[in-house]
Amino acid sequence: MSKGMAVLSLLAIVACSALAGPADAELIVKQNGHFSELVEQLSGKEYVLGSPARDDRPYVDPTPVLHAFRHMAASLAWGDVKVAARKAAELGYEVIEFTDVDTQHEYYVLRENLKAVKTLRGWGSYIVNPQSKVDAIVEVPHPYADMHTPEVGGQIFEECEARGLLLAGAHRDKADVPDLVDSIFHQVHAAWIGPLAQVTAWQIHGFAGQKHKFPAGTQVVASTGDGAIVPEIAALDSAFDEQGMSSYVFTELDADNDDNKQVNGDTPGIAFRSLAAAKNEQGRLSRSLGGAFVHIELEGTVRTNKESRHQASTAIALAMAAAPRGEEADGRRQLASLEVEASPISLAVNHELATPAVEVGAKIVNKAPPAAAPPVVVAAATVEVKPEVRVAAKHAAAVAKPRTAAISAP
Q1: Rounded to two decimals, what is the model's pTM?
Q2: Are 319 and 228 in contact (CB under 8 A)?
Q3: CB 248 within 8 A of CB 152
Q4: If residue 395 lies in a helix (H) or strand (E), which one and from where to where?
Q5: pLDDT in tens, 199-233
Q6: I need a labelling partner for 278 at 20 to 30 A (CA). Which of 82, 99, 144, 344 fits?
Q7: Interhelix angle for 81-90 vs 66-77, to 10°?
Q8: pLDDT tens digits, residue range 326-372?
Q9: H helices of 141-279, where?
Q10: Rounded distance, CA 298 to CA 236, Å?
């Protein structure tokens, strides 16, 4: 071997050693604490960029690393924690093995490594429950703009023992992740729902009642994004009714359609089009793969009241546990989808992204017909609501409240 070749070989060995970094085990940090406090921290200003008016830290465009991040998130979900930790370190993230001191449950947390990056990039934090047997993830896309949704999402995730919890990392005025395919949030969604969207995403939002022409007292509006009343939606509506909460569902079915009456009473489902989530990119992806997506809007007074937040969280957790799984769910969704006529709401979108080259730097920008939900047991509580009782309650509410067909602009 020539002297020149020997030098090149030595340089290659040194370079590879530098890339390998510390041992995989050293990259996984262990922490103990209260899970609720962890969620509070990850949804606070330390890990979330505020609005442009209140926070001058810019959101960093993650396009160069989207493909790499998606694969890293998939590794974590598959249980290959050491590989995920190594890949995370290369992307300025860290993997935390977190143990809740109250329940002794263990979680894996994926968050920005504030010691490794110059400034917070606004890419979000993500939590995996490795012991979960529930085919569901919980998503919180607007931790600042939709106040208290992180608390709701955290409680749902913990109570139902869902597979994952996604917390966005920037105010919606800097990065509105439901509209962005080229976001880390969307890539984690894609990685965690599975290749055929076997895992249902339940996305939590908030709305102000005074801004919408809904029936008086509306507390919850749910949607799949395309107007279908899938089993998950039926289970959710049943659970909210059991909690005594006024909930409705967006659908384009006629007001006198039996399925509409089951979830909306005499109120036409089209009245809730302003919260249809038709353009939600996570919902589009899940549906395009044959899976389900549940978009839940909670009214402001529900979110600001601790007792109401708890009621809403419990209802959603019950619905997640009650939703059918596997072949049963697939068959019922197909039947439900037949009820949805072709319309501008249902859009065919190609969600495949070209694989970008991974770069060190990143651009900075300022910027089936529904049936009664089966009995479910969560924390020894059983819920069973007969369809005729549910419809009667909706009908009574519709009679007592002003019926409106007015539709707010989407």
Answers
A1: 0.78
A2: no
A3: no
A4: helix 387-400
A5: 999 999 999 999 999 999 999 999 999 999 999 99
A6: 144
A7: 160
A8: 555 555 445 444 444 333 333 233 333 333 333 333 444 433 333 33
A9: 149-160, 184-193, 231-242, 258-264
A10: 13
Specify whether the backbone of 17 is left (phi greater than 0), alpha (psi in -120 to 50) or beta: alpha
Q: Report which secondary-structure segment, H or E, holds 295.
A: strand 293-299
In a domain, 160, yes or no: yes
Domain that holds residue 304: 133-400
> Residue 143 corresponds to which amino acid?
P
**C-beta separation of 168 from 138 below 8 A:** no
Determine the length of the chain: 410
Please give the Cα distance from 102 to 113 (Å, whole number).
26
What region does 361 belong to: left with phi over 0, alpha with psi -120 to 50, or beta? Answer: beta
CATH of the domain at 252: 3.40.630
Structural domains of the chain, count: 1
Residue 322 lies in a domain: yes
The structure tokens 């037949």 sit at: 338
Q: 297 in a domain, yes or no?
A: yes
Judge whether 312 lies within some domain. yes
Confidence of residue 23 (pLDDT cuts 50, 70, 90): low
What whole-number distance in Å separates Cα of residue 335 and Cα of residue 316? Answer: 23
pLDDT digits (tens, 9 = 90+) for 250-262: 999 999 999 999 9
